[in-house]
Amino acid sequence: MRAVALVLSAVALLGGCVVRVASPPPPPRVYVQPPAPAPAYVEPAVDVEARATEPPPPLPDYEQPPAPDEGYLWTPGYWAWGGGGYYWVPGTWVQPPRVGVLWTPGYWGFVGGVYAFHVGYWGPHVGFYGGVNYGFGYGGVGFAGGRWVGNSFAYNRSVTNVNVVNIHNTYNETVVNNVTVNKVSFNGGTGGTVAAPTPQERAAATEPHVAPTPMQHQHVQEAAKNPALQAKANGGHPAIAATPRPAAFNAPGVVGAHGAAPVNAAAHFAAPAPANPAARAAFQAPVNPATRVASQAPANAAAHPQGQPGGAPPTAGAKPQAGKPPGAPGPKPAAKAKQPPEKNGEKQK
User: Fold this and answer.
1) How many CB atoms lie within 10 A of CB 304?
2) d(C-alpha 98, C-alpha 71), whole Å
3) Per residue in 197-221, pLDDT tens?
């Protein structure tokens, strides 16, 4: 009996045991950052042409030259950076790359402690250009200087300088400028404009864009090579503030900024040498001394041939002087004139 009792006790003890199997530890918790809220304005990828640590000068005050012909669109002037300083790129009339596009001007924006220049572009609509009031239809938002009507561009005469004799596709529409009129040339930072893109400008930023034309690039390159356009040289008042066509810095119709130093007209509008090689050689040839002396003779040189003093009798066949009968005595002989050097093997008389 005792053995049976021991067996039953062992069974009871075994029945009360619970075998516990250790479960694997839970995986570590991984923190997933929630998505950031969408910003108010996502600026598309833009072509930043230059950066500077100092702000550009104020925009100069100047008049717009008249449009040279139909189909030209105005591109306002701006300050560019190069060679360790700012230089002025004159405003000019440009032929667009194709029908239906408008010019969005470039602008300087203060971002991350530096001033960055955002390059302008062509597109179906005018985008954001920093709220800078460039004038002539670019009052800080959009463009009021004209619009496309089919395949022709119509000019708003209230803000655009056009000659109605040559350009007939015009209209008059009053422009109400709600932007503060000043000469600030950059966006953001101390003293810059505080404009932000409008919904229309945000939409324009996502449209297909066309880069500046080759003539626009040439215009900028010519401005960069002109020392007179550097802000350090002109004090912010360039003598070439606007041109009738791209890179036409020496052409008639160039407009200077108000307060600019006068340009030497003789050097500024010097006549170019002829394209024909023979004509160019004659154009550049030194003046013959004898020819120069003859050209500097007095107005009555026809009555006093070279080599004959004023009182010498006329040669055979010469006509008498007007108002004097033939054979009348002439005026008192003057001092003998200095003879020109020999030329073409001819001896002096």
Assistant:
1) 19
2) 10
3) 999 999 999 999 999 999 999 999 9
